Amino acid sequence: MKKGFFNYENGIVLLMALTFGCLFFDRLALNFLMPYVAKDLNLNNTQIGLLAGALSLAWAFSSFFSTAWAETNNKKKIVFIVAVFVFSICSFSSGLAVSFATLLIARLVMGFAEGPVIPLAQNFVERESSPNRMGLNAGILQGVGSALFGSILAPVLLVKIAENMGWRNAFLVAGAPGLILGLLAWKFLRKSTVESIAQINEKSALNISELLEFNNIKYGIGAACCVFGWWFSTLPFISTYFVQNQGMTPDEMGKTMGLLGVAGLVSSIVVTALSDKFGRKKIMFFALIIGTLYPFAVYFLAGTALHLPAMFFTYFLMGAIPLVAAVIPSEAVPVHLKAKAIGLITAVGEIVGGVIVPAIAGVLSDKIDPSAFLWVSASLAVLGLLFVSKLESNPLKR
């Protein structure tokens, strides 16, 4: 057990959480600024879905192949630092877009740069975590990162900037903090945190076939696709839906998205901490059942006093993201495969949940009904229960 609050374990968790937060602030900026961007660049729902999918596709390939290369060649620190600098610079380019095509290119480049950051950050935190804090630390990383910065601060700050200074300037603000955090990571990451633990005979190997021998990797991939898809099927469309279909003002939309961010923050701590105490599988079941109800709360309770409270509590499936993306894959494999396992599940989850699902949801929302993306989300939460039921209590079982 590591004594005291001001120790290296807590320091790494905080630094990685802030870096994660900066990344998600940049990544999610387009979602919160979409009402302005879509109007200015004349985007439809299909194009909005393709923009989300392009970033996720580049992110997916980079998250596995860049992470695997860094792990195999013992270059995790340099890959992490370069990626942080590049995605920060690329954020500026989104604000310079003049058409759908130029914005698409900017998001592709950003996604490729961001890909290895999360798997490596989660791997660094896992390496320094006390055994009884693995889930909680991953939840803090997720919660402070994507929830506090990406989902709470981002919608409020970016919408305010867009209203007063224009959406292009909002993208410039989003990219700046990453440069500072990249320098801090370069200074404070220790060799023991970033050094690869690899078998001699696996040089240059991707280990995909070996990873798929483990039961919780096979079914964990399916669970991750469903949880990622549940989130990404709503995320690109929900802010525009609130404004155009439920009559919210941009300010009301920003505050509502901020409230959902609070739910993401709280759930990332609560759900992961409960999984440390009661087990990953039980808590995953509970979170997925709650998440199934989120689209119904959005659609059927609009305009009522229960709308915001119901959305808040049913958004708690967000807390399962660090479990499927980091904790379950990390616990499912031997130490020399941990970073690659996180990278593989992130990659496949991004391709299915972040590329294919938003594209389908966007087309259905254009062709059938603007609310179609909500029912895609609910269906994926139900399907996720099937994959979670296949997870083993002995995570290293093949």
What's the arrangement of secondary structure elements?
Layout: H1 8-41, H2 45-72, H3 76-94, H4 100-114, H5 117-128, H6 134-165, H7 167-175, H8 177-188, H9 191-194, H10 208-211, H11 215-232, H12 235-244, H13 250-278, H14 280-292, H15 294-300, H16 307-314, H17 321-331, H18 338-367, H19 372-389
Task: Walk me through this protein's architecture.
By secondary structure, the chain is mainly alpha-helical. The chain has one domain (8-196, 206-389): Up-down Bundle (Growth Hormone, Chain: A), CATH 1.20.1250.20. It has helices spanning 8-41, 45-72, 76-94, 100-114, 117-128, 134-165, 167-175, 177-188, 191-194, 208-211, 215-232, 235-244, 250-278, 280-292, 294-300, 307-314, 321-331, 338-367, 372-389.
CATH class: Mainly Alpha
Average pLDDT reading: 84
DSSP, total strands: 0
Q: In DSSP terms, counting alpha (H) and pi (I) runs of 4 or more, how many helices?
A: 19
Main attributes?
398 residues, 19 helices, globular
Quick summary of this structure?
The protein has one domain: Up-down Bundle (Growth Hormone, Chain: A).
